[in-house]
Design goal:
By secondary structure, this protein is mainly β. The chain is built from 1 helix and 6 strands; from the N terminus they run αββββββ. Strands 1-2-3-6-5-4 form a 6-stranded antiparallel barrel. The radius of gyration is 14 Å and the shape is globular.
Length: 94
């Protein structure tokens, strides 16, 4: 387990990339999680972009905020702190 914000930042720098949030460059791990949902006889497959970031880098984040990665803008549609100082943010392409 990562012990403090410095440890978390080191992990993000090793595995992640920089994105922009609220005018600031922050380190994040970008992912397109795959999921499959069943609805009656119809199955739906999709991928949902998301980033994992340190809590301290996204204080006050809200649904509808924008995160930019490689020039592409994403709207925040889900915010899931994990209780360890990290937050998974679900995104939608703007």
């Amino acid at each position: 387990m990562l012990e403090d914000d410095a440890d978390r930042l080191e992990e993000l720098r090793a595995l992640g990339e920089q994105v922009t949030y609220a005018g600031n460059l922050i380190w994040a791990i970008f992912d397109r999680a795959f999921y499959e949902a069943q609805g009656g006889d119809v199955g739906v497959e999709s991928s949902q972009p998301m980033v994992t970031v340190r809590d301290v880098d996204v204080v006050g984040i809200a649904h509808g905020d924008t995160i930019t990665r490689n020039g592409a803008n994403y709207s925040v549609v889900g915010i899931h702190p994990d209780g360890t100082g990290m937050t998974e943010i679900v995104l939608e392409v703007v």
